[in-house]
# Entry
Amino acid sequence: MKCLVCHHDMAERNITLDLRWGGELVVIEEVPAIVCENCGEQVFTPDVTRQVQALAQQRQKAARTIVVPVLSLGTR
# Structure
């Protein structure tokens, strides 16, 4: 598959996905994706997208919790 952004080759990989859901940061690991080897563009199948949305909505017990620093350009 060729990247729609830069037209380079893409490869299947498992990635870590960081997303905002309901105002919260959710991190989901081991997400199957097709990733551009040049620019990093990520493509997900419709089934993977549904699984990610369902997992983010469920609010099941997290595998682990991490501390994330929050930075802002507006506080200079």
Summary: The helical segments are 46-58. The chain has a mean pLDDT of 91.
